[in-house]
Amino acid sequence: MNESNIPVEQLCRRVQNEDAQERAQGAGNPAAPVEVLRFLAEDKDRKARLLALAKNPATPAANLRILAEDEDWRVCCAVAKNPVTPVETLCILAKHKNWRERCAVAANSAMPVENLRILAKNKSWHVRCAVAGNPATPADVLCVLVRDEEREVRCAVAENPATPTETLRILAQHEDWQMRHAVAGNSVTPVETLRMLAEDEDMHVRWVVEQNPAVPAEILRILGQNEARRAVAKNPATPVETLRILAKDKDRYVRYGVARNLAAPVEPLRILAEDEDRFVRCAVAENPAAPAESLRILAEDKDMLVRCGVARNPATPLEILCMLAEDEESAMRCWVARNPATPLEILRILAGDKDWDVRYAAVKNPAVPCDALTLLVENDDPDIRRAVADNPNTPLDTLAVLVEDLNPDVAKAALRRFRAESRKRKEVP
Fold first, then answer.
1. CB–CB of 272/281 below 8 Å?
2. Nearest-angstrom CA–CA distance, 281 and 294
3. CA–CA dist 352, 21 (Å, integer)
4. What is the rounded CA–CA span in Å between residue 204 and residue 206?
5. CA-to-CA distance for 187 and 221, rounded, in angstroms?
């Protein structure tokens, strides 16, 4: 049976039930008579008051006034969000000490403009953010809040359908992608602004433009063309001449696709190694097809993300790996330790690095030399000893020592490997 069609007699019985859950369900029913709601307004159970009465648009104004004085802030917040809460009650809640209650009031579109102006200056950024997102907030207040020190407040203004279109046009050119993201999702953003955002360098912004119900078909066609170029840039079967053209594309995600493409020719990769976008340079740094001279340049890039990409690349020249193995950043040495192309002598050194992550990465590397593994049998860290036990290069005699390890996880891992290796040797004729 539909909850709203429950007979009044049954509702009355439900609200007198000893089970608080039953009373809460009865109070939350939109068909509940006024006398029933009045009865439950003073219920001892918080759930009956909060989840039902305080939120119910059918609750009488007098009862909402009572609930607004409840000691539980959740009840007060529910009253503050109720669309039928009297203005005088909202004004009282706006002065409460709990920022959550003020925040709920600030988001209520029934709040008088003069009170929204006051709340727009509140110390709590959560409250200012609620005012910034309220469709009832006047334009002049929104123009002040768009310069707020908190990003969340500024983004709320950008998402607000009451924000002036001229302000949205300005925000659409903001350097912060999250701001442009908010504008792209606003249903009142001008078509010409959406057209510009459809070619934004950030894919999250473009994706929101696609979802905007106000976006015209012509913009959707532009977005489709952009996505097609990105797909072509990533495809290893794309002709070399096409990749050369796409390497100069204004869309950074197209250039990123070319930079990651294993079939990309040397010339475009050399150009992309100097791209202004760090993610494009990082993609070149990780690409085994990148020319050695470009990897040498990227190994000294100002961005650590790019340098780490070089350290990960199995095609990176040995002298560069040796240089990066001495980098002061442990993350850099860690990636060198993981690289299967890292020379044995470097892995031997990294296996004894002062940083745990570097030592662990070196021990996990299948290419680490046996003598380095043997030296770590007595390491204080059980995780390191466990990694030694798991490494396929660990000699049988070393595994035999680890079988007696005091740590049960290390001993079990060593025993499993010891048995597996022993069986392999017996099978060899």
1. yes
2. 10
3. 62
4. 5
5. 19
How many angstroms separate the CA atoms of 241 and 225, rounded? 19
The pLDDT tens digits for 383-420 are: 888 888 888 878 888 888 888 888 888 888 889 888 88
Tokens of 318: 């040995």
Higher-confidence residue of 323 and 351: namely: 323
The torsion angle over the Cα atoms of residues 45, 49, 52 and 54, rounded to 10 degrees, is -170
Q: What is the 3-state secondary structure (H, E, C) of the chain?
A: CCHHHCCHHHHHHHHCCCCHHHHHHHHHCCCCCHHHHHHHCCCCCHHHHHHHHHCCCCCCHHHHHHHCCCCCHHHHHHHHHCCCCCHHHHHHHCCCCCHHHHHHHHCCCCCCHHHHHHHCCCCCHHHHHHHHHCCCCCHHHHHHHCCCCCHHHHHHHHHCCCCCHHHHHHHCCCCCHHHHHHHHHCCCCCHHHHHHHCCCCCHHHHHHHHHCCCCCHHHHHHHHHHHHHHHHHHCCCCCHHHHHHHCCCCCHHHHHHHHHCCCCCHHHHHHHCCCCCHHHHHHHHHCCCCCHHHHHHHCCCCCHHHHHHHHHCCCCCHHHHHHHCCCCCHHHHHHHHHCCCCCHHHHHHHCCCCCHHHHHHHHHCCCCCHHHHHHCCCCCCHHHHHHHHHCCCCCHHHHHHHCCCCCHHHHHHHHHHHHHHHHHHHHCC
pLDDT over 60 at 15, yes or no:
no
Which residue, 291, 344, 55, is CA-closest to 41? 55
Left if phi > 0, otherwise alpha if psi is -120 to 50, otherwise beta: which for 381? beta
Which range has the worst mean pLDDT, 55-64, 87-96, 163-172, 256-265? 55-64
Q: Are 398 and 405 in contact (CB under 8 A)?
A: no
Q: At CB < 8 A and 24+ separation, what contacts does 351-359 make?
A: 351/375, 351/376, 355/330, 356/381, 356/384, 357/330, 357/331, 358/330, 358/333, 358/334, 359/384
CA-nearest of 268, 266, 267 to 254 is 268
Tell me, rounded to whole angstroms, the distance of Cα 26 from its chain centroid: 39
Query: For residue 163, what are the CA distances in angstroms to 174, 177, 231, 317, 352?
Result: 16, 18, 36, 55, 59
